[in-house]
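Predict the 3D structure for this chain.
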Amino acid sequence: MAVSVDHIIEALSELGGQAHLDDIVAKVALIAPAPLPVDVGASVRARIQERCAEAKSYKGGANLFASVHGVNARRGEWRLRLDTLSVANPDGVLDDAEALIVHAEGKAELRIHLRRERSLALIKAFKASLTHYRCEACGFDFEMAYGPHGRHYIEAHHSIPVSQLKEGSTTTVKDLVALCANCHRMVHRNGLMDWRELRAIVATRSRRSG
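Done. Predicted structure below.
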């Protein structure tokens, strides 16, 4: 399956709005359903540059991505523009307007705000609400495995993918589930499975091997 712009937006949103290409590719590989392209990195790079006005391969339309150090620097660091989650706008919060008029290099431009972003503030609130940081599917505890380096680390899984949310939908911490990296990847593999189904699989296999 081809990597879409939506996959990249979702990946960058989860990464805080800015990340190196390698990290974006890894996150897209987790989000996008199988089968993935043979060269996921090349597909991600192509989609980003097609929606970056400074890139030679820009195809017009929504100008969604920006090179942090400039495209000529070739340092591989990319960010979402300000109308989605970004370092300069860490909570992904905009005015209530669905469409905004912005000015870029003296030219007025109509930019549509994409509401399907994950909010970094929501994820932080979710993690702050946790009484433990064990994976809800398999029970893995990063601190138990890695010591202080793994303390308070866990990934936040959205039970309904951002790409499937209807326009105007809102989410709360109740929509998020604490999963380790392995289980997070498993629930996204070949589409999306309910995390409770994965928990049942893990429990069944654990009983069989016990």
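Residues 5-112 form one domain.
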